[in-house]
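Workshop exercise sheet. Pairs work together: one partner reads the sequence aloud, the other fills in the structure field after running the prediction. Swap roles for the next sheet.
Pair: D.N. / O.F.
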Amino acid sequence: MNGYDNTYDSYAEQFTSDIADAKRAPEIAAWLRSGPLGLNELLDLRRDRLITDGYPQDRVDARAAQSIFHDLGRIAGLGGPVQFDGSRFGLDEARRAFIDAWARDHGL
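Structure field:
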């Protein structure tokens, strides 16, 4: 990968640690590669994926919210690949190359 350095390794180690108990958290960062999204947009994406995965329709809204908040708690904020600007979530551009590589490796 172009631009590979020790910073990339550091991002990879932190990301792996952050998502240890939040297996779907990386998809949030992958979704943000095309631009910032609001909370409702993230909820819609998660809801759609849960429905596609066969999650019961009567529980999908509550589960989408629970899982988005859990995952954002792992990857958003200081040091994480996801940043919040007060109204929208966006990708930390310093981590874009790592997230792009991760998404490619995981078919996202």
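Discussion prompt: The two ends are 17 Å apart (CA to CA). What would you look at next?
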